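Problem: given the chain below (264 residues), write out its structure.
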Amino acid sequence: MSSALALLALKLTLVPAIIYAVTLAGRRWGARVAGRLSAFPVVAGPILLFVAIEQGAPFAAAAGAGTVAAVAAFAAYALVYSWLATRFAWPLCLLGGYAAYGVVAWLATQSTWSVWAHAAIDVVVLVTCIRAMPRDLTAQPPPRPMRFDLQLRMVCGVALVLLITWLAESLGPRAAGVLALFPVLGTVLTVFSHRASGAAFVVVLLRGMLWGNFAMMSFCVTLAALLPVVPLALAFVGAIAAALSANALSIRIQRAAHRRSGRA
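Solution.
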């Protein structure tokens, strides 16, 4: 019982603490940084850790492969929301983004492709969606922090962790992994930013999330590869290192692209 209570306490504290730190960093350094950090495995990573502890390494490895497959679903959400945001208010944008995520996520749960095949597809999808994002929108001031914004992000993160770890066994590893990437933080960030500062700001935010998903993909691919063959702690250390390396590389690529085009 004591170990179960300790694990529950970790679920209730780890994710909110990470979300708190990411939110403050995003507020300090702007939409692009906020997008990148929110796409880092700040929620999916702890979910996979708890799944590994409760369901075992093989289950968590398969769930990590499911999360890799879901990266394309998140990219669909970001692209559809961005284009709808250029013409419509946030409720319709959110509905369209969720519909796009749902279709691609459902296809991911039906797939029998390897994690490496999905990773290759993710790279193509992310690059394509980044290039297809709306551009040259009229910039607006950054949003002021909305009341209960931070608290809502933390509650949503904890709720997703508790829900997936509770349902993991009945959902199965692939579905649990796909659900781990459901855009909970993305929803809070995009809706609040869209309401406060309009389409231009939210497009920059979502583009940052797409760039950040290279780190998410690298984290989950590494975890799926290492969990069956190395101890749990070592697998997660390797996955975090892979995510940090991918993030550093994508930042360099993004900056080079920005210098060439003169656009964010």
